[in-house]
Amino acid sequence: MNKLTIVKVKNISKTYKLYNKPIDRVKETLNPFKKKYHKEFYALNDISFELKRGETLGIIGRNGNGKSTLLKIISGVLTPTKGHVNTKGKISAILELTSSLKPELTGLENIELNLKISGFNKNELKEKIKEIEEFAEIGEFITQPVKTYSSGMKSRLGFGIAISSKPDILILDEVLAVGDFNFQQKCLSKINAMRENISMIFVSHSMNSVRLFCDNVLVLEKGKKVFYGNADDGIKYYIEQEENEKQELNKKNTPKVVKPFYGDLFHNKEKIINVKHSWSKVMYKLQEEMILDFSFELKFDPKNLIIGLPIWDNLGNNITSFNSDFYKIRLFKDRYKIKGSLKTNCYFNPNEYSSMFVVVDGSEFLYRQLNKNFTVANRERVFGYVTLNHEWEING
Ligand SMILES: Nc1ncnc2c1ncn2[C@@H]1O[C@H](COP(=O)(O)OP(=O)(O)OP(=O)(O)O)[C@@H](O)[C@H]1O
């Protein structure tokens, strides 16, 4: 191991046997042919890195990706299935702040016990106890059994004890996630003051703390090392990855798109030709003016011409429909040439919509074809599917 290297983690893997049913474990033990009834689960998969003196390494990753398992292996609480860890000097691990505390003993007795285990002599003890007492701010409860403490008090005491043992390697697992703001600040400044003299491994979900303290970052994903290097780059990598996953999840969670039921598409070319219809834009914002321009020619004399414009959302719900009875059409040579537009305001929720251009004469369909889809994109949402143009009149 290099002179400056304090922790060397080499090809660490930790596997667990996963059984579908508890009985499978018994079956496996009793099977004369050593038949396997379990699946192998990799909590950690071939992890290697080195930590140098004075360096702080942040380990980040989402829940269940192996961070705590790695810390436990480095601090000797767990043995790896494969690989090995070499460490130089004294390790103090705060895996669970309160795990080192004995509930029946008082705060003072707990401090004393831990300091003795850490090898402090009688002369040093008094001063150290005072230091921890001051840090933990337990007040008169320091002479009461720890089982009577609040969780915040236990955390303060646990942290105080752990850092006072003058470790060479300090391992911190989410310590800053507990306790109130003041306590967190106190821990942070204590950690900061110790940084230069010791090596630290630091698990946190707070990217700010990681950015503040860590030189390097190890990103774990499903037990694998997916990034190791400079803290800023590591955080960027992690955040980008999280964003991508969120997007994937959103895609999965979006309801299955059902093809809207439009009825049969239809075009009677004997009676209607040169039909054009299009929305002014493909994307609208809330309240924006929407225009559908249309034109067509009729090869006959209509009795009661109606243009319809039904609209569906992406799930096939028929949101609304515009209808126009109109007669004012001008005979142009042998044809009726019609040109017009429908204007409305966009009061639809953000979504993708389909609409149809329908021409009917009395009860006879002449034309039923889809327009190009339009999308409504805005941050604000309306209540329900759509908001209708309206005015309130309220008299007090
Ligand atoms: N004793 C065990 N038996 C089986 N699986 C285990 C055992 N201990 C941990 N695991 C699994 O190993 C994986 C890694 O767990 P670990 O606690 O290291 O994750 P983590 O990244 O620290 O998560 P968190 O951020 O939630 O603390 C998880 O999927 C967990 O369910």
TrEMBL record:
Superkingdom assignment: Bacteria
Any one GO CC term of the record: membrane
PROSITE patterns cross-referenced by the UniProt entry: ABC_TRANSPORTER_1, ABC_TRANSPORTER_2
ABC transporter domain residues: 7-247
Gene3D superfamilies per UniProt: abc- transporter (atp binding component) like domain (2.70.50.60), P-loop containing nucleotide triphosphate hydrolases (3.40.50.300)
Key words of the record: ATP-binding, Nucleotide-binding, Transport
GO function terms (MF aspect): ABC-type transporter activity; ATP binding; ATP hydrolysis activity
Keyword ATP-binding (UniProt): yes
PANTHER family per the UniProt record, alphabetical: TEICHOIC ACIDS EXPORT ATP-BINDING PROTEIN TAGH
Protein name from the UniProt record: ABC transporter, ATP-binding protein
